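Lab meeting, action items carried over

1. Structure of the four-component assembly. Owner: GW. Status: complete.
Input record:
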Amino acid sequence: MARRSNIDLTRALILGAAFEIMEQEGLDALSTRRLAARLSVQGPALYWHIRNKDELLGMMAASIYAEARAAVPRAEGWREWLTHYGLALHEAFRCRRDAARLCSIAKPIGDPREAAGAIAAPLVAFGLPEAKALSYQASVISLALGWAIFEVNGPMHAFLGSFMDLGKTFRTGLDALVEGYSA
Amino acid sequence: MARRSNIDLTRALILGAAFEIMEQEGLDALSTRRLAARLSVQGPALYWHIRNKDELLGMMAASIYAEARAAVPRAEGWREWLTHYGLALHEAFRCRRDAARLCSIAKPIGDPREAAGAIAAPLVAFGLPEAKALSYQASVISLALGWAIFEVNGPMHAFLGSFMDLGKTFRTGLDALVEGYSA
DNA sequence: ACCTGAACACCGTTCAAGT
DNA sequence: ACCTGAACACCGTTCAAGT
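Predicted assembly:
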């Protein structure tokens, strides 16, 4: 990635650079000063474009959730969709370094009612009432996030990995959860 | 809590003070310098007793898990125990301020094999094989932690709370998970 | 053995000033 | 409109020196 200069900063540019730092050096290395340096700019310059670091983290988390939703393959029923959504989230939290940690500290951005509608939509399309759709998804997200947090925590990963296959065990739990909702 | 002085520092004293700060001022306020100040001592003094801040956080997390395990009432079968364990964890993560955030970043301390045995014991006592016991508990812990992380995140709590009853929805998910394991 | 003082290399954020 | 320089109030950790 060549060093830029004399190019206007934009929120998209900032978001991209933030992901690059998080993936290459980890969430702890994502400081406003380093981020600015990668954009060939001084630290305070960022504050013209973003309110503060929390807003940036919120944007990053929203982008991760959106990507996972988009990665869910076409399903034939809400059970199948929910399972694949859980798998996609779990994958997203693990493939992008520190994504799980990021999503656990990020504050939501945007309008709740709007977001809720968009989140529930795929399940509502299969005939589930919106309240149930949101309830089911909240648990699936929680399970995926909780698992990913442990898997992404280096020493905890080693700890758990010493007596179980993490991927398989997550799948077993996810299947049990979806199965339980069917009953 | 009267200001101490001229009293030897011990790991127990440090742990207690750390919990006080976390509960009263939040995890972000738990810096080594503040912790030392509360113990009427200079920052570097802590490093004689603990290896570093990570070790301290690990001790705190272990203590939270142990407390939740101890809070589970007598059960008549593994399903009942598992459900109450999930509820106790959820409660522990919510009643102690920032406990969920702490547990999601804390690195495990101590010997894995030893810990695994202790963790699995209650379910093994009900006749479950250790591998299953650990698998079931890992998912219950993940679900409780994932939920708690969202509930404990102020803006996220408001966001989710605007369209669901958090406590009830967690309970529904936990029941579905345990039900699913029974099938 | 246990603690202090001083230092190192950082943070997020603010704000006047520059262009 | 957009960015810089300087500053404020912090971090975790190390290490020689004190007692």
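2. GW to write a short summary for the group page. Key points so far: Residues 23 and 89 of chain B are 17 Å apart (CA to CA). Chain B touches chain A through 47 residues (CB under 8 Å).
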